[in-house]
Design brief:
By secondary structure, the chain is an all-alpha fold. The protein contains seven helices and no strands. The protein has one domain (6-199).
């Protein structure tokens, strides 16, 4: 497995610091459920980057990576729904719980083809929520234009999740070396977009 270069370790460290900042001071004054969702999302991101620095890219071979790559978009999208789209709060909460357990169970008890479909479905729905909801809110004038940056972060997290999913199943969309080389930068860009979006909303 390719080792993590020093520049990529620095990118991961910057991502950790930004996620820690967001947890500490970036999500105050919100509904308790929304704060919990955002805290889990950025907390898991922080831990994932820390594990990458400590163990290297070998950690990506773990089945836990699939679970981690599902928690981040599910909790972030649930936080956005809870905060901004109240009529479907309960429905999306049920989807998030069922979607998470479907991904976990499918990795253990179902063929890879079924597991990939379920993973793509969960990632697709949560990614579209993160991508579209901030942009629509901005277009409707309900938030400041900067909030649309969360949508850009949503697009990046969707790309990252799919790249990891296909890499884990042995059928990568891009070459393994390419995915591993760009992944730390993708994480940093995604985190930056999220933090700026929350800051400027």
């Amino acid at each position: 497995m390719k080792t993590i270069s020093t520049p990529n370790r620095i990118l991961l460290l910057l991502t950790i610091l930004m996620a820690a900042y967001q947890i500490a001071v970036g999500i105050d004054g919100l509904d308790r459920i929304a704060v919990t969702c955002y805290t889990i999302s950025f907390g898991v991101l922080l831990v994932a980057c820390l594990l990458l620095i400590i163990f290297g890219y070998e950690i990506l071979q773990s089945s836990l990576v699939v679970i981690v790559s599902t928690i981040i978009p599910l909790t972030l999208s649930l936080g956005l729904i809870w905060e901004y789209w109240q009529p479907i709060r309960t429905l999306y909460l049920v989807f998030s719980i069922l979607g998470f357990f479907a991904v976990v169970i499918s990795r253990r008890f179902f063929p890879d083809s079924v597991a990939v479909i379920l993973l793509a479905l969960v990632h697709g729905v949560s990614g579209m929520v993160i991508f579209l909801l901030p942009i629509l809110l901005t277009m409707n004038g309900e938030t400041n234009p900067g909030f649309a940056l969360i949508g850009i972060g949503g697009a990046l997290i969707g790309i990252g999740g799919l790249l990891l999913s296909f890499l884990r199943t042995g059928r990568p969309i891009l070459s393994r070396d390419t995915i591993l080389s760009i992944f730390p930068a993708l994480l940093l860009l995604m985190t930056t977009a999220f933090i700026l979006g929350f800051l400027l909303r």
